[in-house]
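Exercise: predict the fold of this chain.
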Amino acid sequence: MQGISSDIGQASLTLDHLALMSTTYRQGRVSCLAVTTDDLDIFDQMMSELIQLHQKWQTIFMWQDGPLVQAMKAGDLFLVDEISLADDSVLERLNSVLEPERKLVGYLS
């Protein structure tokens, strides 16, 4: 059995793993006197709360294309007004859009 990851990117796999553990104990495939039915009920309640938190996290961080990406996907023009006022870091990221490959490169820190 694999270890349980604390990485949020692995949350779905971790929740599946925890559900499998609960099912295994409930079906009696694991003999452990220290784990009672009440313990499993509490564990399942915590699992339910974790699933709800994961669903909220997914909606908070759901990607949405902005106007530039929408224009790029549609092959439309995109007007950047007063570009001379933009920060240098913004201009660096827009350089890749002006190249023949037309890619938007994001840098996460």
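Check your answer against the key: The chain has two domains: 8-60, 64-109.
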